[in-house]
Design brief:
Blueprint (H helix, E strand, L loop, with lengths): L5 E4 L7 H9 L6 E4 L13 H9 L1 E5 L8 E2 L3 E4 L3 E2 L4 E2 L14 E4 L2 H15 L4 E4 L10 H4 L1 H10 L4 E7 L16 E7 L2 H7 E2 L4 H13 L3 E9 L5 H16 L8 E6 L4 H10 L12 E4 L7 E4 L1 H18 L4 E5 L1
Parallel strand pairs: 1-2, 1-3, 3-8, 5-9, 9-10, 10-11, 11-13, 13-14, 14-17
Antiparallel strand pairs: 4-5, 6-8, 7-12, 15-16
This protein binds iron/sulfur cluster (SF4).
Length: 338
């Protein structure tokens, strides 16, 4: 279970039950707590880029989210549902690496009820349409859930709302607190899974594949909608054998439940130039394949492009996952392979 090294509080956060609860909870001699004097977060140590990154990951900041609009989250949902931002894991390829600065601490919002009130306003506005929210757009909320209970509260809120739906994705297994909730089938929990090589080499401080599969089985038994994101798919040596083995272990782990409808999203590895620079800075010995010559440059919507696999490789990835998912999970639904 994730244990922070330091937890900083915005003064106003202590006016909310969650802020107060966390303040009490982290009064532990091994954990530094302090009340911030201003909006600026200071006091996270570190000399080198790697040290700064590591110390950032050990830091929580408890804040109040202002009444800002939720950001859109297309295509997977209509809006992000911002309970927190940041993540305790250290995946080398993480899309958040260029987002949270040199010391990527995790922010947890104390005013959950106000955030859910805001979500309700969006649901009301879109009625009679259903409104989808994504609660893991800028974080993996699961490692913090045993401390916060924010997700549990959100799942029950959405479960109680006919026109609300929630999605989230995780690489962790701390999900026991979610199993008995009244979710009403309105929440889809997806697990991000990968080959042994990718997990062992690049997904530092996440749950093992076995633990993710065990957690997925519990989620299915608790009647949640279940999905898997396979990604980033990396075509390392023996990738086909390893991804096939991963799918087979998943099917075995879900056992007799494998006939249930389970969704799959498959995402091939891609990187931007700024992400590559940042990864090399923080993980100087990285073996992540980021040779531009071996990729195709794909122009992005907002001017900055990404290096994706070449067409023949993408086709191979598509064919491989289509064939194997349909064979191993005959009732599985592939949402997309990109
Ligand atoms: Fe990033 Fe997800 Fe890994 Fe967290 S678990 S570091 S959000 S890729």
């Amino acid at each position: 279970m994730y244990k922070p090294k330091r937890v900083f509080f915005e003064k106003k956060a202590l006016e909310y039950p969650l802020g107060e609860k966390l303040y009490e909870l982290f009064q532990d001699k091994d954990i530094e707590t302090k009340i911030l004097k201003s909006n600026r977060v200071t006091g996270i140590p570190g000399e080198s880029s790697t040290e700064k990154y590591v110390e950032g990951k050990k830091t929580l900041v408890i804040r109040v989210r202002k009444n800002q609009e939720f950001q859109s989250c297309k295509p997977s949902a209509h809006y992000q549902l911002p309970l927190m931002s940041g993540c305790s894991a250290k995946c080398e390829y993480c899309y958040l690496n260029t987002r949270f600065g040199k010391k990527p601490y995790t922010t947890i919002y104390a005013n959950v009820s106000e955030i859910l009130d805001k979500a309700e306003q969006y649901i009301e506005k879109r009625k009679p349409e259903i409104t989808y929210f994504e609660s893991a757009a800028t974080s993996d909320p699961i490692p913090f859930e045993p401390y916060t209970g924010s997700l549990a509260k959100t799942i029950e809120f959405i479960g109680d709302n006919d026109k609300g739906r929630l999605r989230l994705v995780t690489k962790f297994d701390d999900i026991d607190g979610l199993l008995k909730l009244k979710h009403n089938g309105h929440t889809t929990i997806r697990f991000s899974i990968n080959s042994d090589t990718v997990i062992n080499e690049y997904e530092h401080d996440t749950a093992s594949l076995e633990y993710r599969i065990k957690a997925a089985r519990k989620i299915l038994d608790a009647n949640y909608k279940l999905g898997f994101i396979i990604g980033p798919v990396i075509t390392h040596a023996d990738w086909k054998e390893q991804y096939k083995d991963m799918l087979q272990r998943l099917a075995n782990g879900l056992d007799n439940k494998k006939e249930e409808k389970i969704t799959f999203e498959v995402i091939s590895h891609r990187f931007t130039s700024s992400a590559k620079n940042r990864i090399i800075e923080v993980f100087p010995k990285t073996t992540l394949p980021m040779e531009e010559d071996e990729r195709k440059y794909k122009y992005g919507q907002f001017g900055y492009g990404k290096y994706v696999y070449k067409k023949t490789t993408i086709e191979e990835i598509k064919e491989f996952f289509k064939d194997n998912i349909s064979t191993i999970f005959p009732k599985g639904e592939i949402e997309y392979i990109i």
